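Need residues for this backbone.
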C-alpha cells in the first residue's frame, strides 16, 4: 500500500481492543491467521496512520530518527520472540510505536503504547547496558543543576519519571530530584492518554505536543560530557 493512504489518522476503535482480546483468548497461529484481515484493518492500518501523522514533528526533533511506518520500524511486531521466555504465547496482546535512531549504543526512544489496560506515551532509555547507564549517571552528576531543571520541566508538563530502582544506587546525590533519576536502572518519562483521546484524531495533537515538550530533555541527554 502507498504510504499516503495512511496519512489521516482518525483514531483507534473499540474493534482495535476487541482484536487483542480475541488473540488473548486463543493465542495460536491458526487463530491469528483467521483474524489477519481484521488485524490489518483495525490495528496495523491505524498504527501506520498515527506513525505517519506524528513523524513530521519527530523529524524536526531529530532527523536521524527511524520513521519507517512498518513493523520492525516504528511499529512493534505482533509476533513475540519466545525463545528465552517462559510465556510461549506467540502473539502480543498489545502493540506500540517506538521512534529511535539506528545508532549503536544507548539511546532514548519516543514511544506510544497501544494497550487495552491503558494507553501511555513518553520518552525512555532503550538498548541500555549497565555500563552505559553508569556513564550517563556521571554525566547527570556533572550537570546536576541542569539535570534537576530538566526533570522538573518534564514533570511540569505532566510526565512522571519512572523505572526500576536499585536497592543500593551506585551513584548518589543530596538533591532528591536528581536522586530520583540516579537511583533507576533505566528510566522513562511517561503520561497516560484517555481512551476518549485514543478513539479520535486528537491523539495526534496529544502526542506531537508531548514529544515536543520532551525534546529538550532528549537533546540534553544526547549531549556529550
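Answer:
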Amino acid at each position: 500500500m502507498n504510504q499516503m493512504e495512511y496519512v489521516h489518522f482518525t483514531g483507534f476503535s473499540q474493534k482495535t481492543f476487541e482484536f487483542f482480546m480475541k488473540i488473548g483468548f486463543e493465542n495460536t497461529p491458526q487463530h491469528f491467521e483467521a483474524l489477519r484481515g481484521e488485524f490489518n484493518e483495525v490495528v496495523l492500518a491505524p498504527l501506520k496512520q498515527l506513525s505517519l501523522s506524528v513523524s513530521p514533528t519527530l523529524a524536526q526533533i531529530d532527523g536521524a530518527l527511524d520513521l519507517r511506518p512498518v513493523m520492525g520500524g516504528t511499529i512493534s511486531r505482533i509476533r513475540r520472540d519466545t525463545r528465552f521466555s517462559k510465556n510461549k504465547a506467540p502473539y502480543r496482546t498489545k502493540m506500540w510505536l517506538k521512534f529511535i535512531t539506528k545508532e549503536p549504543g544507548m539511546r532514548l526512544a519516543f514511544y506510544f503504547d497501544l494497550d487495552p489496560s491503558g494507553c501511555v506515551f513518553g520518552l525512555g532509555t532503550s538498548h541500555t547496558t549497565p555500563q552505559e547507564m553508569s556513564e550517563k549517571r556521571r554525566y547527570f552528576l556533572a550537570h546536576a543543576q541542569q539535570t534537576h531543571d530538566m526533570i522538573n520541566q518534564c514533570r511540569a508538563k505532566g510526565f512522571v519519571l519512572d523505572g526500576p530502582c536499585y536497592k543500593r544506587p551506585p551513584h548518589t546525590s543530596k538533591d532528591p530530584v536528581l536522586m530520583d533519576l540516579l537511583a533507576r536502572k533505566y528510566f522513562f518519562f511517561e503520561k497516560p492518554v484517555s481512551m476518549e483521546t485514543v478513539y479520535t484524531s486528537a491523539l495526534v495533537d496529544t502526542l506531537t505536543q508531548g514529544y515536543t515538550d520532551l525534546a529538550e530533555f532528549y537533546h540534553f541527554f544526547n549531549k556529550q560530557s
